[in-house]
Design a protein that fits this description.
Length: about 190
């Protein structure tokens, strides 16, 4: 297994650890979740950079990399829902989950036609902005645990979640336009 693919697998492990740490009632675990989330973001950038530099782009990496991102984003958002003070809108998280399931279905249809769909530019931008927004949300939890979160910080979580949902839907529309012919072919 190439180094970029190992970093992708590490990101999946980190995503599960972030989820578990955020679910813990201990503030120290929340701080650990923030550190692990940041490390996961770094591995996301690093695995892509290394894959291109080492000419180690693989079908596995094209599929596993976006799956690792989804596990990190969705797992963290779901874990943050338990923090009622953040008032994370469930409808926004639902839309993000829905987008990921639909894109997963499109990738399955592409696979049935012998194609591997890597993340497109818009999907990568969406993921980068979501990761930064969610990192901010986890940071708010850590600050709240220490009594340092200002009310505006806690209130910023709602619009950040809405931003993540809007980006998810925009990216979904882009994918559906881009692969419309392939999807229509699959309906025949």
């Amino acid at each position: 297994m190439s180094l970029p693919n190992r970093l992708t697998m590490l990101r999946i492990v980190l995503a599960v650890a972030v989820f578990a740490a955020l679910m813990a009632d201990e503030p120290g675990w929340h701080a650990a979740a923030l550190v692990m989330f940041i490390v996961a973001i770094i591995t996301d950038w690093l695995d892509g950079w290394l894959a291109r530099r080492m000419k180690a782009v693989s079908p596995f990496g094209k599929v596993a990399d976006p799956i690792a991102d989804k596990i990190l984003v969705l797992g963290t958002l779901i874990a943050l829902i338990q923090t009622k003070e953040l008032a994370i809108p469930l409808w926004a998280v639902f839309l993000i989950v829905m987008r990921e399931l639909v894109i997963g279905g499109v990738r399955v249809i592409a696979g049935a036609q012998g194609k591997v769909l890597a993340a497109d530019k818009w999907g990568k931008i969406k993921t980068a902005i979501q990761l930064v927004a969610i990192m901010g949300m986890v940071g708010v939890v850590v600050l709240r645990d220490r009594g340092l979160a200002e009310p505006w910080m806690i209130q910023s979580v709602y619009p950040l979640t809405v931003l993540c949902a809007v980006l998810a839907l925009s990216s979904l529309a882009s994918y559906l336009r881009q692969y419309r012919a392939m999807l229509e072919k699959s309906w025949e």
